[in-house]
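User: Hi! I'm working on a homework problem where we have to compare a predicted structure to a textbook description. Could you give me the structure for the chain below?
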Amino acid sequence: LITIPISAIDATLGCKVDVPTVYGDVELTIPAGTQPNQKFRLRGKGVKDTRGGMPGDQYVEVDIVIPSSVSREEKEHYEKLKSLENKSRKSVFERFKNTFK
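Assistant: Happy to help. Predicted structure tokens:
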């Protein structure tokens, strides 16, 4: 098991990361919408079994890193995203009402 840090943006949009294994680096595709502590399996990229000699699986856990400080420009972009998110959300009453249409 290895834990790799990625940004919230990479978790939201998806990305590719190089993951170290006992056989060298392997490129792992992180899908869009990845959640914190989500695990991915790299088949056959783990340590060999002592009895059978077959390579095991390596697990990769995602650690989403939130920046502790952001620039003014980044803050403006985050605020724009927040306002877009708030516009797209409907109230509980609206969602309930729409189920009967």
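For your comparison, note the following. The first strand starts at residue 2 and ends at 7. The chain has three helices and five strands. Good luck with the assignment!
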